[in-house]
Amino acid sequence: MGIGEEREDKEEGVMATDFFWSYTDEPHASRRRQILSQYPQIKDLFGPDPMAFLKIGVVVLLQLWTATALNDAGWLKILVIAYFFGSFLNHNLFLAIHELSHNLAFETPAYNRWLGIFANLPIGVPMSVTFQKYHLEHHRFQGVDGIDMDIPSETEAHLVTNIVAKAIWVVFQLFFYALRPLFLKPKPPGWWEFVNFAVQIGLDAAMVHFWGWKSFAYLILSTFVGGGMHPMAGHFISEHYVFKPEQETYSYYGPLNFLTWSVGYHNEHHDFPRIPGSKLHKVKEIAPQYYEGLESYKSWSQVIYMYVMDRTVGPFSRMKRKAKKSE
């Protein structure tokens, strides 16, 4: 379906039945070249965040300590603390892993891998190494059919067609996000993934052995609720779901950037993936004319509400492009 067709559907209040197909290259590479030609000083922002290790260490230790402190707590208390506290910490760590997938803590890639495995510990499920393998393709081949696994599958899009289905999809979106590439584009695991798996299962087993199932359940619940109907999880939708056809990446400039490694600066991030989140705001300050004309958000919660309630928006609301022969 072309963009013009989609606009007709939105005017009629009908959900699209195909993705938005773009016949141009993704916008970030060209904008990056333009900005660097005009503001070469932006290159000074490239490189690791020296505070990343400390920030990750504090969150990991705080979350693991919280889990052990809840070993005898009631289930309602565990659920409440998981939603209103632990979910923020685990989602912060998920986005720390996103940061590390771009090698933005250390110059040496292996050190970033090890720190990613450490950041993975409170999440409860080994994912940091596998995430990097697919996420870097999302940057190199944004929207490319069959390569960018950030885009929902045809099956998801055809099943999630009404408000109730979209609400359920949002609750379980972390599962779709994690499992989609394993079904659509499975890759053989490497040595680092076995290390990630062994370390994570070791921590999970130790948590159950020494503190019991409730402590481990707190970690899993923190991951699950933090990736579903949760303010921080709004970034999964806000980043690339097309609410306006002429734009395929959106930024968010609200306060939750403080807790999410500034992933809300998503146009800036895709334009300059070598700049750590702590400095992405400087890109917009240096080159404001390239970003002020773009649509952006101030609330991730509002994005989730819009996605669920707008009958014209759904999993098909993503920009796709055909793979080039060389890809």
TrEMBL record:
Keyword field contains Membrane: yes
GO molecular function ontology, one term from the record: sphingolipid delta-4 desaturase activity
The protein's name: Sphingolipid delta(4)-desaturase DES1-like
Signal peptide (residue range): none
Similarity comment: family membership: Belongs to the fatty acid desaturase type 1 family. DEGS subfamily.
One Pfam family here: Lipid_DES
Origin: domain of life: Eukaryota
Keyword Transmembrane: yes
Residue spans crossing the bilayer: 78-97, 159-179, 216-237
Keywords from the named record: Endoplasmic reticulum, Lipid metabolism, Membrane, Oxidoreductase, Transmembrane, Transmembrane helix
Species of provenance: Trema orientale (Charcoal tree)
Span of domain Sphingolipid delta4-desaturase N-terminal: 14-52
